[in-house]
Sequence to fold (110 residues):
Amino acid sequence: MEKISESIVLKLNRHLNKEGLELQKMKLGIEILLINISKLIVIMSVSVYFNLLKETAFMIIIFVIMRRNAFGFHAKDSIVCTIISLMMFVCGAYLGCFIELNNYIVLYHL
Fold:
């Protein structure tokens, strides 16, 4: 991803003419964006394979809504992050298909 982001930054910088720290910030931002897009592609591909695309998308949307106001931990390695994300979103969506919640259960725990 580093080489791809470097290539994109060099092409963008022909028009923007940034230097030093500004250029490094732009490269890091593009690299993070590319890493996140690649992880999302992996997660969605696995969910399509298991026919859980709708459920996984729903879990990701709920996670994004909660994540806007909450902090979280970060894995030390990108592959660990991808594995944890797969377990959380795809396995969570799979388990959600089997857990049945009715109104009485929800109200009882409030």
Notes: The mean pLDDT is 87. DSSP finds five helices and no strands in the chain.
